[in-house]
Amino acid sequence: MRLLEPSSVTEASKAAREHWRATLSLGFADDRGTTRLVERSHFGPLRVQKPLYPEHPSVCHAIVVHPPGGVVGGDQLAIAANVGAGSHAFITTPGAAKWYRANGHVSRQALQLQVNAGAALEWLPQETIFFNGADVRLDTEVTMEADASFLCSDILCFGRTASGERFDHGRVAQRMQVRRGGKLVWFEQGALCGGDAGMTGPLGLNGRTVCATFLAVGRQAGAGCLQALREEASSQFGVTQMKSVLVARYVGDSSQEARRLMHRAWQLLRPALLEREAVTPRIWNT
């Protein structure tokens, strides 16, 4: 085994302290009825390998890949997507996102999503797992034209409960705003700290380990769609329609149940808002 010289040790230690800074910028445009991925620029470990068309040329599927497989303390991720007029983009991920413990550094993710006139964006990543001790900031800004549509889901899992891990220390802060036609139609921010009242109290997660939100912004879902969603309602799942915004939430202990309910919400709301059948991507079943 070759021993490192002192200068090499210093360089190795410095490299170990460096953090990933990754950006991804995507642009979609309508080309005579086909949605094209016309921009795909990146820096660092964020990629979209190629556009996919599993259901129809008018809907472009893009799978965002983060090759390291997890986000460590101090990593900075930024994703931007611009969905051009009349186009339709569907963006997801190949698996669960993992945010590791902080090690004294804050990890961040910033999303900037633009949905232009008559366009639709479905932002449907798979679940996010926060390891115990993670310190994470998540910031999402969505700007829509008045006749655009936006569907998104967000499944958050606190701690690796299958391994007996609880999220008893660490911090997760979120901020999300959606503007439609120049008006703020959705704004939410907050922070959860391991072991605090937000995690354990009845006005927070009440000791649960998984929370999920499905947000649909666009024309109102019909009464039949709302009724079908509310048939899923329980003490852990609820649905609210507020003019152009519909929100469905789950709070419980099962990521599998959260996925089922978010998928069910998407199955019902996609035809209602986008007039398109919900075709499940193959990547969700792998």
Class by SSE composition: alpha/beta
Work out the helicity level. 10-25%
Low-confidence stretches: 1-17
The overall strand count is 17
- Largest sheet, if any? 10 strands, mixed
Q: Classify the beta-strand content into a percent band.
A: 35-45%
Tell me, rounded to a whole number, the average pLDDT: 91
End-to-end distance? 40 Å
Radius of gyration: 20 Å
Overall 3D shape: globular
Number of helices in the DSSP assignment? 4
Tell me the series of helices and strands, N- to C-terminal: HEEEEEEEEEEEEEEHEHEEH
Quick overview:
By secondary structure, the chain is α/β, with parallel strands linked by helices.
Q: Which short descriptors sum up this protein?
A:
10-stranded mixed β-sheet, 43% strand, 286 residues, alpha/beta, 7-stranded mixed β-sheet, globular, disordered N terminus
Provide a descriptive summary of the structure in words.
There is one protein chain. This protein starts with 5 loop residues before the first helix and ends in a 12-residue tail after the last helix. It has helices at residues 6-17, 197-200, 223-230, 255-274, and strands at 21-31, 34-43, 47-48, 60-65, 76-83, 88-92, 97-99, 107-115, 120-123, 128-130, 135-144, 149-158, 171-180, 183-193, 210-217, 237-242, 245-252. The chain is α/β, with parallel strands linked by helices. Mean pLDDT is 91; it is low at 1-17. Strands 3, 4, 6, 7, 9, 10, 12, 15, 16 and 17 form a ten-stranded mixed sheet that branches. Strand 13 and strand 14 (183-193) form a beta hairpin.
Question: How is the topology of this model organized?
Answer:
Blueprint: H1 6-17, E1 21-31, E2 34-43, E3 47-48, E4 60-65, E5 76-83, E6 88-92, E7 97-99, E8 107-115, E9 120-123, E10 128-130, E11 135-144, E12 149-158, E13 171-180, E14 183-193, H2 197-200, E15 210-217, H3 223-230, E16 237-242, E17 245-252, H4 255-274
Parallel strand pairs: 1-5, 4-6, 5-8, 6-9, 7-10, 8-11, 9-12, 10-12, 11-13
Antiparallel strand pairs: 1-2, 3-4, 12-15, 13-14, 15-17, 16-17
